[in-house]
Design a protein that fits this description.
Blueprint: E1 16-19, E2 25-28, E3 33-34, E4 40-41, E5 57-61, E6 64-69, E7 73-74, E8 80-81, E9 88-89, H1 100-116, H2 119-122, H3 195-203
Antiparallel strand pairs: 1-2, 3-4, 5-6, 6-9, 7-8
């Protein structure tokens, strides 16, 4: 260790060492540090308020900073919402590689396998072919649904009721026994009992007297 050249790697905190014209060395320090060996924290990175959540706490570090995030927030600057996060020290979140293209390619591969299994021919043959009962193979034309042959066989609605089955929207064309009542999408949820009557109705329930304010399905 000579102390006068760069062989000993004297520069700290990412500083770059260079030989001085007059002998010895000099350190080119990164922003936020100074000193002969870049050992001094010369900038408070928290002054710029980098933490993006109002409840986050910023702590200055040598040439850097960290954010302590409140619950449900993550990221270097607590800039991302994550309902599973307990909070704490924020870390830079590396974006996940876009996997849509992967899934598209994988789905295409599965569909090629469906062709090899002759699933298009087997679809709708009123027999459950388990090897074809997948999304890529169109679920064997619904032959395996509910463990019976095509449960929509008797459904004559003008729309494909199996495509809108249980989607949360009432399709009247499918609201019949043959079309499996549209997955019960047309059943109306009961509204809550009028709060003016609620406590009264509970107290006077089945007391032998008809209280017209309580004489409804909600109460």
């Amino acid at each position: 260790f000579s102390g006068y050249d760069c062989d000993s790697d004297p520069c700290q905190n990412g500083g770059v060492c260079r030989i001085s014209d007059g002998g010895g060395y000099a350190c080119d320090c990164p922003i936020g540090t100074s000193g002969t060996n870049c050992e001094i924290d010369s900038l408070n990175e928290c002054d710029s308020n980098p933490c993006q959540h109002p409840d986050a706490i910023c702590q200055d570090k040598l040439g850097d900073y960290v954010c302590y995030c409140p619950p449900k927030h993550v990221g270097k600057n607590c800039e991302l919402y994550d309902h599973n996060s307990p909070g704490g020290l924020g870390h830079a979140v590396i974006p996940r590689t876009d996997i849509n293209s992967f899934y598209t390619k994988d789905l295409e591969k599965q569909r090629q396998e469906c062709l090899q299994k002759n699933c298009p021919i087997k679809r709708g043959n009123f027999r459950c072919d388990e090897e074809c009962n997948t999304y890529a193979c169109d679920f064997d034309g619904n032959d395996c649904s509910l463990g019976i042959n095509n449960p929509w066989a008797n459904c004559t609605a003008p729309i494909k009721c199996w495509d809108v089955f249980g989607n949360g929207v009432c399709d009247e064309d499918c609201n019949n026994p043959q079309c499996l009542f549209d997955g019960r999408d047309c059943e109306k949820l009961l509204q809550p009992c009028n709060p003016i009557y609620d406590a009264y109705c509970q107290k006077h329930y089945a007391n032998g007297h008809c209280d017209y304010g309580c004489n409804n399905a909600e109460c």
